[in-house]
């Protein structure tokens, strides 16, 4: 299974390298559309190679997806934490009841029960 994972990540890396080599031309990225930039009097632009813009977009998509999933799975994590807390409380109660039941009795007789 480990080799399949290495193979998969090798293919992904190879695809990213080919994408990077094929898209080396410089592009201009703007933070605002031209109409808004003219309205506010600011035009923040950055010139980067196209593959950098593509990789930044992919990375940004991954981060947004991870945050979205983390928020979506909150109810499952909260439920798991609640059940773990309840389990610990019940285990403590069982231990307390065992001690109370056999309190003052002979240890051998308590083991037989």
TrEMBL record:
<keyword id="KW-1133">Transmembrane helix</keyword>
<keyword id="KW-0175">Coiled coil</keyword>
<dbReference type="InterPro" id="IPR010445">
    <property type="entry name" value="LapA_dom"/>
</dbReference>
<dbReference type="GO" id="GO:0005886">
    <property type="term" value="C:plasma membrane"/>
</dbReference>
<feature type="coiled-coil region">
    <location>
        <begin position="71"/>
        <end position="107"/>
    </location>
</feature>
<feature type="domain" description="Lipopolysaccharide assembly protein A">
    <location>
        <begin position="46"/>
        <end position="94"/>
    </location>
</feature>
<feature type="transmembrane region" description="Helical">
    <location>
        <begin position="48"/>
        <end position="68"/>
    </location>
</feature>
<keyword id="KW-1003">Cell membrane</keyword>
<dbReference type="Pfam" id="PF06305">
    <property type="entry name" value="LapA_dom"/>
</dbReference>
<protein>
    <recommendedName>
        <fullName>Lipopolysaccharide assembly protein A domain-containing protein</fullName>
    </recommendedName>
</protein>
<keyword id="KW-0812">Transmembrane</keyword>
<keyword id="KW-0472">Membrane</keyword>
């Amino acid at each position: 299974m480990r080799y399949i994972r290495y193979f998969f990540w090798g293919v992904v890396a190879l695809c990213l390298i080919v994408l990077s080599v094929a898209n080396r031309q410089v592009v201009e990225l703007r933070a605002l559309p031209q109409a808004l930039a003219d309205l506010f009097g600011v035009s923040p632009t950055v010139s980067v190679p196209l593959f950098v813009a593509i990789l930044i977009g992919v990375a940004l998509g991954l981060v947004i997806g991870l945050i979205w999933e983390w928020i979506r799975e909150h109810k499952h994590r909260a439920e798991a934490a609640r059940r773990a807390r309840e389990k610990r409380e019940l285990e403590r109660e069982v231990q307390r009841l065992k001690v109370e039941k056999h309190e003052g009795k002979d240890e051998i007789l308590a083991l037989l029960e």
